[in-house]
Amino acid sequence: MHKIIQDLNWRYATKKFDSSKKISPEDFDIIKESLRLVPSSYGLQPLKFIIVESQYTREDLASATYGQLQVVEASHLIVICCATNIGEKEVDCHIENLANTRDLALEEVSGYGRFMKQTISKMSAEEKLSWNCKQAYIALGQLLHTCANLRIDATPMEGFDPKAYAEILGINTEEYSPILLCPIGYRDEEDATQHLKKVRKSQSVIFEVK
Amino acid sequence: MHKIIQDLNWRYATKKFDSSKKISPEDFDIIKESLRLVPSSYGLQPLKFIIVESQYTREDLASATYGQLQVVEASHLIVICCATNIGEKEVDCHIENLANTRDLALEEVSGYGRFMKQTISKMSAEEKLSWNCKQAYIALGQLLHTCANLRIDATPMEGFDPKAYAEILGINTEEYSPILLCPIGYRDEEDATQHLKKVRKSQSVIFEVK
Fold first, then answer.
1. ∠ CA A183-B80-B41, rounded to 5°
2. Residue A5 and residue B35 in contact, taking contact as beta carbons nearer than 8 Å
3. pLDDT tens for residues B79-110?
4. In chain A, what are the domain boundaries?
5. Which CATH superfamily is domain B3-206 in?
């Protein structure tokens, strides 16, 4: 069996982490760099990843996560946020980064910038948030894959109170909105969920050939 | 450098595929199985992956993709669809699969089914579509990671006409909605984009420690 399939079968939404086990700085560097490399629509990277290190803060967050203790007990807690109302400023930043990285004159890429601005200006605030929120899910998909490859456990979570998270973490929600949580670390040997068979539809149900 | 980081640096949104190069059945099996294993909210897997094999159909689709020829020239074209209006039927299917897979009596898991039904019944049709649409993006994130690991090129695409896709592919949009395209295969050596430096924000910009 290919390692990818072994990894994805190995992973599961961890219910209980072993709080004594910490991710090594080397592995965490790989995770961070893999998040930095996540692709996004137009390459705009409308994302911010908040790493919550303070144990005190994480205990505060537990009550805004309906008591799910993974946010406290996991080695690291990542809060994936997306840009709330992306606009001209973000496009300008990207275009500048593009020009710098590829050693181009700003004039050579400004047409692309104008095109992006035009596209974005046609979207309502709600449409922009929804669009950028989806980019957070691409990051989640890659993060879970990276973690499984490194045999690091993870719990993808949509269920939390984003307003309370913003307050506790001091996030300016006009700039960024908390979308997803992903506590990562190592499963507790007492977490019975790890022994349950993975439930998935069969290939014949989810694939269709045309 | 860890293989994951090498892989993610190697990948790029391919502009031109070499249409003479085909993904081996062995690699495509890994891709399919990895898509089957993609996690989803409540484990409901509200996704359908359409593999468009017919070259004739793919040429038809090009005009519904604003002439982006990757849908024709790539080795394989995957259309990621999500459930349009998930409801009790889908929950019952999942609960039945759960009971069968884990060798449980239906009664033992029916409470969980009722909980899911309750949650879903509170959502508007629009909210349900938006929720399931996000699950498609998790699949995209994992797919791009899997492909990069196998050194298979891919082009994630949001820009296409979903109505025309549904018509051409005969998708009943009351059941499934086309959300994302991902042509996969091998880059053409003449695709100049492959030589461009990857543009990403620095870690100091996208990470924040609390």
1. 30
2. no
3. 999 999 999 999 999 999 999 999 999 999 99
4. 3-206
5. NADH Oxidase (3.40.109.10)
**In terms of CA atoms, which chain B residue is nearest residue A36?**
B203
pLDDT bin (cut points 50, 70, 90) of residue A109 is very high
Q: How far apart are CA B60 and CA B66, in angstroms?
A: 11
Contact B94 A199 (CB under 8 A): yes
Minimal CA separation from A90 to chain B, in Å: 11
Report helix, strand or coil for B154.
strand
Question: What pTM does this model have?
Answer: 0.97
- For residue A202, the chain B residues in CB contact (below 8 A) are 36
Chain A interface includes B134 (CB < 8 A) = yes
What are the structure tokens assigned to A164, written together?
A: 């309370």
Residues of B in Cβ contact (< 8 Å) with A206: 35-36, 45, 47-49
